[in-house]
Amino acid sequence: MFGIGKLLGNVAGGLLDKIGLGSIAPFVKMGLNALTGNWLGVAQDVFGLVSNFKGNFQNNASQLPPLGGFENPSNNLAAQNSPLSQNRLSDMFKGLSNLFRGFRALSDAKPGNDFGGFSRIFNAFKTLSEAFGNNQLYTNRLSISQYTNIQA
Amino acid sequence: MAGKTQTVREKLNISPQEFAEMGRVGAMYYQQGNFEKARTIFEGLVELDPESANAHSALGGLLTLMQEDAQAIEHLSRAIEINPSQIAPFVNLGEIYIRQQRIEDAVANLKKAIELDPDEKDAGANRARAMVLGIYQIIKSDENLENIDLATEKIN
Predict the structure, then answer these.
(1) How many domains would you assign to chain B?
(2) Which of A29, A73, A103, B134 is the most exposed place for a label (fewest CB within 10 A)?
(3) What does the buried/exposed string (b/e) look like for A72-104 if buried means 16 or more CB atoms within 10 Å of the residue's CB?
């Protein structure tokens, strides 16, 4: 068991602050304190990982939880090359409406059916349409580094 | 034998490129701090294509930020099931498990994220490295571990 009272939380807190995670430092301490099983294995894993760090990563660490593929810079498209448009979204709205009508007709006799999925898609399309309708927002999207990794 | 069920995305003839573009708009809102709109889009994308690892990963990432941990774990785990080579879900599971004081699970997930990015180029994996370094510093400050023979010369 670790002597938590001796832990220098502010050291780790400073590092974690840099990536917006300063608030989790106390949880690390409490979690380590609560470790009753393979704590040595955990410590060895941590020390092994750290010993292989090259040292440059802190300047390129995401400040928010990463999203994955959608924010991958290699997926970037300039706004003018976007595969989507207001007209295309209108078509999708119509298609979804037709799909919904068909689904509802089939499930009218089953009031327990959940239409929440359709509702979530409609809401997403509405939000996307707003984004595409806001030409300034959409055209400028690359210039405000939404799609690039945040420099810590 | 029954065929694969068509997703709503397929029924609406939405191409993978169009779908990815929708995701990028969600990511744009997320980076701008407009989490409500980002969430609306990511939730819709998961409904459109429940087999999209990117959609589950994005929604899971946002839910990690919102600290809606149970739902986040569900989507992050699904993202990993669909595509185990994605880094982001492992990073975010690591963060959640730290918050839940499940350090062993946290380290296991952070380790996977780091191993998927050996060149330290991925910002998400680097976030994982920062978390590991934070854990390291806390462990290192404990005198009970002083005698453990661990190779740490490079960072000292």
Answers:
(1) 2
(2) A73
(3) beebebeeeebebeeebbeebbeebeeebeeee
